[in-house]
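Q: Entry one of two.
A:
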Amino acid sequence: GYATGMVGKWHVGMGTNCSLCPRAHGFDTYWGMPVTNVQACGQKDEWVTQGSQAGFIFSRYPAGLIAKTLAALVICTAVLWFRGRASLTALLVHALLSCAVVYVIYWVPSTIMLLNQRACVLYANESVIEQPVQLKYLTHRATLQATRFMEQAVASARPFFLYMSYHKVHTALFVTDEFEGVSAHGPYGDNVEEM
């Protein structure tokens, strides 16, 4: 008998036309993004382009950590090869496997999702209501949707369950005008203040 709603970042799978979104898992209503607040949703100066993707890979955790670890393995193998303790074949195999691992676990997903503006979609149930998502007031709009859901449940005298998952706080960083520059900790701090 509960009214169930989900507002915010789903991040558990999208499927085709939101077929794996919250309503497919028993929620009565859904308003939000089926994926995370992807890089491509950011303002133009926050976007990561294909040309800067290598820098993006090496600067992000955990992908950056994985890439750095694999690079360290290749360097260690190279040192062993120079000292005569590893074969040239081992060096080449480590280098190729390292590149393959970084490509498979990060480059491909980031090209499909993080850098793809088509992944920047806002849904109401299974309907696209905004693409690309306008991030600036997304936190306020999500709060408004959650409040409406609770008010409707109370008005119908139904108990309710609301799962609320804000899109903040990670890149792409976005903040309303009211909170821009309020923190001494830059854009990230502004986002924390707004939350």
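Q: Entry two of two.
A:
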Amino acid sequence: LKSQKAAQILERDGPNQLEKPPKPTLLMLFVMQLTGFVIILLMVAAVASLVVNGTGPNRGDILSYTTGKAIFIIVGINAGIAAWTEHKAGDALEALSKMTQASIYVVRDGKEVKVDVPDIVKGDLVVLGTGDVVPADLRLVEAEDIKVAEMALTGEPDDVAKTWKMKPKKEGEPEKLTPENCCFSGCSVTNGKG
């Protein structure tokens, strides 16, 4: 694949990554904190306290409402702190993921070049080696004793041997979940190269 053609495909199809859901706002995180079971119980208790004190003999005394007010204030402070902490943790996680963005070798313009995984496009020849994480669903065109850990995909605990050869399906034989000439995104190469 030529670099110019790869750039056109990347422009047309977009990066090789899943769409990320929109990041929740601080207000949204605050409201989500108020939907927990225990928090709802505390707010119901605060409302009950205010209602009981508002209909009781001391309804004119402002100090009789302190318990309900205190519960509301504590719940609000707790939700605010939790929302702020979650917001900052999300920012830190996003910064960390940008720092550790994976890269892999592909063949472009007849040479092996290292590119970031999101810049891989349809038509790229990806060079896999031991320790690499498969950056996209791939069909092998060349393989040397390659094995892939597909446990996250299929639950199979043993590494799966892969080959570039297409094997014809025998009559009466069940179809395999993962073909022997394909590697799937997110699986690790544990042996060989392809």
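A: Comment on entry two: The CA atoms of residues 93 and 99 lie 10 Å apart. The helical segments are 3-13, 26-33, 37-55, 66-99, 151-154.
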